[in-house]
Amino acid sequence: MTPNVIQDMQRAMAERFGEDFEIPLASDGLASLAQHRVHRDFLDRPVDPELLKMLCACAMSAPSKSDLQQRDIIIIQDPDLRARIAALMPQYAWVRTAPAMVIFCLNGRRLPQIAEWRGKPFPNDHCDLLFNAVADAAIALAWFQASVNMAGLGGCPVSEIRNHAELISEWLRLPDKVALYAGFCLGWPSTSGHITPRLPLSVTVHHDRFTDDHARGDIEAYDERREALHPARRQRDPDVWGTANVYGWSEDKAGQYAEPLRTDFGAYLRRRKFNLT
Questions:
Q1: Residue 139 near residue 70 (C-beta atoms within 8 A)
Q2: What is the pLDDT of residues 97-146, one digit of tens each?
Q3: E-only strand ranges, 172-271
Q4: Which of 14, 159, 178, 277 is deepest in the core (most CB within 10 A)?
Q5: Residue 137, SS3?
């Protein structure tokens, strides 16, 4: 264990959650999680293909619901394909400049395939198949992020690919019952990044029963703390919503979801033969 790991974890969690933490157990792995930072600026240094393969293996070592293994990773190697994907989201320059990119997919195809191969029925083609596949992909993505950090690299998920799901799925030749979940761009960070404050645990961690009786006050306090630490670079749609005196997380997210987003994604999943009922 590296020196001062307990103090590093305490500082990171205090900045993240706005409260002091006791650290009853410390390790370099826990410290890596506690100090997580998103990185979108990278050195001009390639990621070795064998290292990328190892990171994918670490991601696929993640738990899987009932050992169903309903997730896949596509490593984007073709420069032309990478350029076409990046061109769909020019507002995110790091999608173009990051040394490596992978795409996580949810796979509802494998189980019906093996049922057919083994001569057995498959009566479970309903929403639970999709739900399990989404969970599998999400867990693998989280483990990939943790593995990237522990290897000394940095990166950032790219959910924007779902805004172009049909086209990118065509480019990737995804078959029925395989769908996009998220991209991930990674490389060797050129900056240290910063810790993103999160909602206080009083809002997100519950004991025995769910309650949000005090959520509004706690979220408003979080807004003020987050704005003081990392003010937003701009306010969202001021011509529509005006300018807020305190522009915190809740104001930004309310504005973000005040307009329809990805309303066609359910149709995309149905076209990929997922049953949402």
A1: no
A2: 999 999 999 999 999 999 999 999 999 999 999 999 999 999 999 999 99
A3: 178-187
A4: 178
A5: helix
**Domain chopping of the chain, boundaries:** 1-35, 37-193, 201-256
The pLDDT tens digits of the residues spanning 57-99 come to 999 999 999 999 999 999 999 999 999 999 999 999 999 999 9
- How is residue 19 written in tokens? 């409260």
Q: What is the C-alpha to C-alpha distance for residues 262 and 260, in angstroms, rounded to an integer?
A: 7
Write out the CATH class of domain 37-193.
Answer: alpha beta
> Backbone dihedral region of 4: left (phi > 0), alpha (psi from -120 to 50 degrees) or beta?
left
Copy the structure tokens of residue 130.
């999709």
User: Which residues is 180 bridged to in the sheet?
Assistant: 105
| Helix 249-256 × helix 215-229 angle, to 10° | 100
Question: What is the distance of C-alpha 154 from the center of its chain?
Answer: 13
